[in-house]
Amino acid sequence: MAELQIVVCVKVVPKPEEIRVDPETHLLERTNARSEINPPDMNAMEMALSMKDRYGGCISLLSMGPPFFEPNLRVALAMGADHIYLLSDQAFAGADTLATTYTLAQGIRKIGDVDVILCGEESSDGATGQVPPGLAEWLDIPQLTLLTDVSIDQTLRTARGRREIKGGFEILEVPLPCVISVKTACNEPRFMDYRLRNWALEKDRLTVWDAGDIDAEPGHIGLTGSPTVVTGLDEAPYRERRREFLTGSPDQVVQELADILRKEI
Amino acid sequence: MVSSLYGIGRERKSIWVYLEVESGGLAGVSLELIAKGRQICNQLGWQLAGLLLGYQVGELVADSFAYGLDEVWLGDDALLEYFTIEAYSRASFQALMAAKPSVFLLGATPNGRDLAGRLAVRLRTGLNADCTDLYMNPQDERLVCEVSGFGGGVLALIEMAQHRPQMATVRPGVFSPGELDRKNVGKIIPISLDLTEDVIKTRLVERSIGEQVDLTRVPVLVAGGRGVDGDFKMLAQLAQLLGGEIGATRPPVDEGHITRERQIGQTGVVSNPKVAICCGISGAFHFVVGIEKADIVIAINSDPEAPIFDYADYCIVGDVHQIVPTLIEILSAELEVSIG
Amino acid sequence: MADFEQAVGEEVLLIDDELWEQLIELTDGAAALCFQCGVCTATCPWGLVRQKPLSVRTLMRQAQLGLREKNGSLWLCTTCAQCEAHCPRGVNIADVFRSLRTVAWENRNPEKGLPSLLWSIFWNDNPWSQPPTQRALWANNLDIPIFNPQEHEVMLYIGCTSSYDQRAQKIASALVHILRGAGVEFGFLGEEEPCCGEAVLSVGHKHYFEEVAAKTAQVFQERGVTRLVTISPHCYDVFHNHYPPFSNGFQPLHYTQYLVNLITEGRLQFMKPLDLQVTFQDPCYLGRINETYQAPREILKSIPGVELVEMENSAEEALCCGGGGGRMWLETPLGERFSDLRVEQAVQTGADILATACPFCVACLEDSLKVRKTESFEVRDIAEIAVRAL
Predict the structure, then answer these.
(1) How far is C107 from chain B (nearest CA, A)?
(2) What is the pTM assigned to this prediction?
(3) C140 in B contact zone (CB under 8 Å)
(4) A195: nearest CA partner in chain C
(5) Which CATH number fits domain A5-239: 3.40.190.10, 3.20.20.70, 3.40.50.620, 3.20.20.30?
(6) ipTM value for the complex
C-alpha cells in the first residue's frame, strides 16, 4: 500500500490586532506587525499529524507567500511535517480567493499523487473560508468541510469525517483524493518537538516554486487573476466599551434594558 | 485576466437569493437576504428571484413569494433530498447559467459557504464572504460589499467590475427579515436538471440532531456566574425569548448546576455573539476572554465594584434574581402582543 | 510496546534503562539519593484534599526503575517543595518531577492544555494568550519611564500576570506608588518586556525553557539590566536560580526583598497608621524555595497599626495555594483546592486581611474566598497594604 500523501495548506498571517490602515493612502500597513501561523491552520496541522501517527505517510506543507513566511513554516516542520513547498513569486501578489485557490491547486498538481489536502477552516485575516471549496473545485475532487475528526480507509480509498451542524452532527464519507477543512479549535495542536528543531532548519526541507515552476497561467494569478477589487479600506473604529450605568428604579432599569435588547437583537 | 463564464454583457439585471432549506422550512438567513434583495430591487427596478433546491419542497415556494420574491427557480428531485455539494453545485450551476443573474446572495451557513465557494470557481467569478453590509451603487449598478477582516479591525469595500454573477455570502442576523404578504404571487421556473446518482460522491453515513449546541456561533448569549445561585432555568427562559443560548462561568459548572460544554472563557468556549448578557458574574479575566468579541455586553451584578463593569457596554447594579424575572415578564408580554 | 502487550495479553511493565540515565542527567544525580522512606508522600498537600494521596514515593520509585509513569499524577505536583523540606536525603524532588515531565514532552505525552500554554508563550510572549502589543496598557496613566541604565537604579519587571490580569495589575500599580514614595529612580521595559519563561520550566519543557531564557537574558543584557525587581516570586525564582549567568552581572530581587532594603536604608517609611490585623501566606516560591520568610513580615511590621498573626502552617510549613507547577493553567476540581483549606486557616486567625506576595496566591486564595462567602475578609498582596500607609 502506497504511503499516505498529505498536504496541509498553511498561511502565515499578521497578528490581527497589529494591522494598521494608513488613513491617507488607505493601504494596509503590515510591516510592523508580528507574524504567526494562521491559528486554524494549526488545527489542520494537528489533524495531519494525528493521521500520520495512525496511518503513517508524509506531510507536505503548501503555502503561497513571500520568503518571510519561511521561519514560521519551519515551525510546522518542527511539529512533525516533512517538507515545505512555498509558492513565491511577485506575480502571485494581490490575489483574491479565486487566484489563490488556482495557484494552490497548481502547486498541488506539481506535488502530485496527493491523497488528502487539509486546510484550516478560514484565515484570521480575510476569514472568507473559501479556500477549501475553491481548491476542491479547481482540482475537481470531493470536499468535506468543518470536520472535527477524520479517519482514512486506505484499502477502500475513502475519508470519513464528523461534521457539526446546527443542533447535531453528520458523518460523511468521500473517496480520495479529497479536500478537508478542519473546524477551528477542534483539537489542541501539539507543541514543537525539540529534537526536530535543528533538523527543521535544514536547507533541503524547503522548496520554493515560482509561477513558471507550477505552470501557472499569468491571467489566473495575483491581482490580474482576481475578479474582486478593494475600493475602500479603513481601520474599524476602536471598540471601547461604553460602560454606561443604567440608573433609576428597578422597573425603569429593566424597561430601559428591554428597549436596548429590542434595538440590538 | 480570466473572465467569468458570463460577464456584464450577458447578465440579466436580477438579484438571486439562495433559499436554504432547514428543518423543513426556509432558513432564517434566506428570509433576511430576500428582504435585503427586495430593498435593492425596488430601488433599481430589478427582478428578485430565489433558487430553491430539494425534494418535494413545493410548499415552500408559496412562502418565498409571500416574502417578496418575483420568481422562484425550482429544482425538485429525489437526488436533491439531502444537501450534497456535488448535486447542489451542479443544479445551481445549471440554473445560474440559464438565468445569468447579476447578483447571487447566499447565507454564510456551513453549506452555504461550501456551495458559494465551489460555484464561484466554477463560474470563474468573485465571491465576497461574510459581508456586514451590501448595497448597489446606482451609477454603475455594481454591488458594493462591506466586509471586515483581521478579526474585525479592518473594514473593506469590495466590488467587481466585469465578473458576473457578483456573489456574496452574509451571516445570519446581519439583515432583518421582511414582512410576509400572502397576496404576493410570482413565477415558478423549473430548472432542467441533469443529475445522475454518480454525480454524488459524498455519502451520508449518519446524521444526528441532538442536544449539541455551538456556543461559538450563537447570536445571543446569556451567561450566569456565581451570583445566579444555580438558577439556570431562569436564564434559559431569557435566552429562549431572545433567540439565544445559556453559558456559564466555571464556578456553577464546578458545582454541577450546568454542564461543562457551556463553560465560557479561556478554558471553555470563546463566543462571538451579538449580545452577551452577564448575570451575577464578577468578571474575572479568564471569563472575560470568552465574551470580549461580543458586539454588545450587558452586565448585571449586585457589586458596584465588580470588574465585569469595565468590560460592559450597559451596566446594571442590582439583584439578578429581581432584574431577570422582570425582564422575562416584559419580553414575554411583548412577544404575545406581536404574535397576536 | 503496544504490540507486545497485545501478544502477552496483559499490561507489561518494561524497564527503560535510558529513562533512568536521562533522569540522573537531568537531576544531576539527585534522583539516585531517594531511599523510598515515603515522607514525601506524607507531607504532600494532595493528601489533605484527596482520599488517596499523591504517592510521590511511588513516582520516585518508578523513575528509579526506569518505568514509564502510567497515571496522570505527574501533572498534579505544584512543585511546592513541601516534600523537599522534609526529605531526609535532601532529594530535589520538584526537580525530579520537572524532569519526568521533560521526558513526557519528549514522548509527546504532556497534560492536555499545556501545549496551548507553550504556544501562547511562543506566539504572544505571555502565557495568557493576550496580544503582545497590549502588555503595557495597564500602565497608561502611570507614566512609568522606559528603563535607562544611566538614569535608573533598578528595573521593575512586571511579569505577564501582573501585566494582563486585571486583579494583579493592582499589585503592580501599588508597587509603582511605593517606589515613587521612596524616591527610587526606576523604569520598565513596557511593551517590550519579555516573558521570564517560568511557566515553561514548571511544566517541564526544559528545551523550550532554555530557548526562552536565552532570549530574555539577551534582551536584559542588551538593555543594560543588572538590578531588577519582580512582582511575582515565580519570575524571581527563575531569574535567580535558572537563568544563565550574565556578562555584566545580574541581580534579581523579589519586591519584598527590595522594599526591606529600602526600609533599612531609611528611604521607605510608612507614616499612616492602618488599624489592621493581618496574617501572611508564604508563597512557596518566595518562602520555602527561596528561603525568604522575614522580608515580607518585616515590611508588615514596619507599618504602624498592623498586627501580624500567624496561621498554623506558616513559614517553612506554609500550605501551597495550588497555583505552582503549571497548575494556574489547569483545572483543579472543586473540593480539591489547597487554597480552600488555606483560606479556612486564615479566617481562623481572626485577622482582617490575608496578605501574600504572589499574584498566583492572590488569584487562588481570592477564588476560594469567594466560594466561602466570608464577609469583611480580604486577600491583598503586601504592596496593596503598604501603599495605603505611605
Answers:
(1) 25
(2) 0.91
(3) no
(4) C106
(5) 3.40.50.620
(6) 0.91
